[in-house]
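hey m, so remember when u said the tokens were messed up on ur end? i reran from scratch. heres the input so u can diff it against urs
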Amino acid sequence: MTARVVTLDLDGVTDKAGLMDRCARDLRLPDWFGRNWDALADVLSDPGLWSGDGAGDETVVVVRHWEGYAEARPDEWATAREVFAQAAALTVALALGGSS
């Protein structure tokens, strides 16, 4: 089994609208993505969107530069983390520290 790694870069994101726009862009979500928590949960749990080229492939989303958003909107960030944690079709990991 191989893993496909996708980066979600939240640099400069300070609100929910920015987070949803960045998710749509960086994760290349479909046009029908509704830019709300339920829609994000749905796309992150849809195996058809994340299966890759092989049936056993795994997708890992690495979230970078999330600290500014977490500080600006702690309640929204808590919801985002909950949605990420419940993603059924992929793995979401938070990048810690450093500038890389």
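this time it looks ok to me. The mean pLDDT is 90. if urs says something different then somethings off w ur setup not the seq
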